[in-house]
Amino acid sequence: MMNKNLSYKPVEAAIFNLKFWIRNIEPQEITPVFEKLLKDTEFGILNFSEHHFPVKGYTALWLLAESHLAVHTFPDNNYTYVELSGCNESKTENFKNKIQDYEETLGLFQINQTEFFNPNF
Length: 121
Known about the structure:
The chain is α+β, with helices and mostly antiparallel strands. The protein has one domain: S-adenosylmethionine decarboxylase. The protein is built from three helices and seven strands, in the order E-H-E-E-E-E-H-H-E-E. The longest helix has 14 residues, at 27-40.
């Protein structure tokens, strides 16, 4: 049964994808930063899941109302790969801008331009 108090907002089939690498591979340091960044940029966090691999390695995923944020550590290389995909351009750009505030904590060193994907183009 539909809630009559809800309204539908059409969303264009488009994804704004932000990919970057950081040098910090410590889950206890990077996970709270990404959680805060998502909240500060008003992404809708629906769920969070993480996995600590035996011996070493970590993967985390935030399921967002707008899509997802994934974090994968590569301890043998001392790098972490981060990818944010979302259907809201302004939130994605705000995240990209605010992450600069954590450059030292995260060891941010390579951030790509936000990529736009639309099946109609």
